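Checklist before submission:
- one chain only
- standard amino acids only
- sequence pasted in full

Submission:
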Amino acid sequence: MSFRGNEEGVTPVVATLMLIVVAIIGALTVAYLVGAISTDTAKRMIAPQATLTPAPQILIVDSPQTYVLDQQLAQQYMATHGGVRVTVQSSPDEFTSATSLSQNISDIVALSRAPSPSLLFKDPKIQTHFIAGRAVVIIANSNMNISALSQADLAMVYSQTQQSVPFNLTGLTIVVRNDDGDSERTFAQWLTNDAETSLINYTAAPAGVLNYTAHNESDVISKVSSTPGAVGFVYWGSVISNNPSVSHINVIPIVNKNNQLVQMPSDNAIKSEMVNMSDTNYDDGLIGGLYYLTEGQPSSLTQGYINWCQSSDSTSMIHKMGMYGAADLGITN
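Returned file contents:
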């Protein structure tokens, strides 16, 4: 029996099917290529005539201490103000930051303290806008009988030198933050008259004083609370948000280094000092915050952002950072 006839009958069918498949694939390929070419041609035809409108942008050059807060505020603002982009970039010091203003590179310079007199002298066009503030306070274990502490007292304690410690501070344990945190920078600048921004050189306690390095605000409070004879520093916001029923800490009055007045931290005292910055209620050197600088009158876009940051719309985020907002203090431009 021969199968030649069947083979000859099948071959044309297979060939026809293959031709149909090839035709379909070819048609699809041609359609794809034509579509791609058409799209590319359309892009090339439209692109030279297109006018791209960039999104309105505000550039903030920030200090390391306020960088995290500014990022949070910027994200919250952009979420409710579609189309506006707020970019936050970090800068090492206020003079470098201020240069970006005078050269029209940035719209806002953010500082953790009010601008220094030397900066304002260098650029008298600078305008300062208060956004938020907070104050460093000294805390001690409840077994410590301390009526007040001065800068001189604490400078002798937070020191590497072998010197005598004040009698009322013998047997002390100092709790140091050397993690480049915000409160550390504020305290270090106050302690050293702006010579230092870190306590990295103050981690070896003098004779008769023990030392413990904390890593954040809650760690400071926990260590001071649980260690008889311990003293540390934290932001006031960390104290008032702490549950006093489980903490054995006292807030210690400060001898103001500018007028030698003994001043006890309180909500009213700290708020009043943030508004007036006159050393009347608390030592200004222990107050930090968020200050926006602009080169003269800001643009309407930038002013709108500043107004929002100073309004009650931003206070929930500011409170999370342990700060008082401008709206809390009744401060506006």
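Reviewer check: The chain has two domains: 57-133+288-329, 134-286.
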